[in-house]
Write a structure and sequence with these properties.
TonB_C; 5 helices; cell membrane; single chain; Fusion Protein Consisting Of Minor Coat Protein, Glycine Rich Linker, Tola, And A His Tag, Chain: A, Domain 2; TonB/TolA_C; elongated; transmembrane; energy transducer activity
């Protein structure tokens, strides 16, 4: 009995055969592409030598066979100067000069002292009054001061005593213009009281008409004595 292929078997076999041909063609195509591509060419390498070029050989200096030997130079000897004798008559002595006379220095002119000195201002002398003055204008001034005098407590506690002289400047009405200490008493407390006393007793008795001047200076003693 003969074998008879069905149409399905024929179609299956044809498909397998076609697939095998396609795979074989693809493999040949891939192999041909790899074989056709040539390998990349490498560029030739150039090596540069940086070493310095060798200097050309210098020719050797030939020494002459018959060269003369060097001669040593000697230092020249300086000539010795000859001594020349000069006769004594040819030497002339310089004439002696006369001694210089001293010149008197100019004396400075004396300054005009009289013109430069300031003139003294004439001040009328002050009247000094004693503590034992009689019944007069000066006596009344002392009595006025004595009635206003105070003994400082600090000086009394220390048993300090003394006499202070004060200079009183007053006008024609007896008003006190200035007070100055003419002589200290030895105690600062007593001196302060002596300076304050004329202002406390202001106004003082008016000076008499025979006392000239718009202002008068009067120096009076201020006594501070403690009873024994």
């Amino acid at each position: 009995m003969a074998y008879r292929q069905s149409p399905a078997d024929r179609l299956r076999g044809l498909s397998i055969t076609l697939l095998l041909h396609v795979c074989a063609g693809g493999a040949l195509l891939v192999g041909w592409s790899f074989a056709a591509a040539p390998p990349p060419l490498r560029a030739p390498l150039t090596v540069i030598d940086l070493a310095a070029p060798a200097s050309p050989p210098q020719p050797e200096q030939e020494t002459p066979k018959d060269a003369p030997e060097p001669v040593e130079q000697q230092d020249p000897v300086p000539p010795v100067p000859q001594r020349i004798e000069v006769p004594q008559a040819a030497i002339a002595l310089a004439p002696s000069l006369p001694a210089a006379r001293p010149v008197d220095a100019p004396q400075p002119r004396p300054a005009q002292a009289e013109a430069a000195a300031p003139k003294a201002i004439e001040v009328p002398p002050a009247v000094t009054v004693s503590s034992n003055a009689p019944d007069s204008w000066e006596g009344r001034v002392l009595a006025r001061l004595a009635s206003r005098k105070r003994y400082p407590a600090t000086a009394r506690a220390r048993r300090e005593q003394g006499v202070a002289w004060v200079r009183i400047t007053m006008d024609r009405r007896g008003r006190v213009l200035a007070v100055a200490l003419a002589q200290v008493s030895g105690s600062s407390a007593l001196d302060r009281e002596a300076l304050a006393l004329p202002h406390r007793a202001d106004p003082l008795p008016e000076p008499p008409k025979e006392r000239g001047g718009e202002t008068l200076d009067l120096v009076v003693p201020v006594e501070f004595m403690l009873p024994r």
